[in-house]
């Protein structure tokens, strides 16, 4: 049976690094994102990666998209939910639409994808579902009301899934990203920051890969990743 990994949320940082990491390990990777033009470019750049246009908040299409992945590539054994959105405002500043949209990407989208892919994960002797989280899941600061509440709920949903699916040999893990990803745009925005201030996306992808290789007797549920200089 082919090894198939589906990644929802393909940006220039973590998403792309995960695509490269898993294809390098022999996986066929389904890349799911709204920007299908960019995904098509990546198809040419990364052998073994294939584009599927999908918006994480369009839950009604999840079953259709994952059925097509199953038909094209085979049953998914690893789902990486890397979609995320944040509105950084206080409870008094955020609009109801902004609040809802943040929850839809981080929570609703995770549930929709899980429901759509669960049957495929169950076709394998061992499978993995890894969620990209944030340190906001632990703490709600004054100007993070929508993002922190959505990430806290996402973490709780992942924990519920881990308890439900663990007995079926499906490893669910939540990866807390605590810091700023090293990208051209973040370097430009923070020109005075030293190299060690930033998180390296390839190193994050290595850690995600490690989670999918763990023995079930010593599974990690929550893995927090941060550079040594990050305040926590």
Automatic annotation (TrEMBL):
SUPFAM superfamilies found in the cross-reference section: NAD(P)-binding Rossmann-fold domains
TM helices/strands, residue ranges: none
Pfam families: adh_short
InterPro entries: NAD(P)-bd_dom_sf, SDR_fam
Protein name according to UniProt: SDR family NAD(P)-dependent oxidoreductase
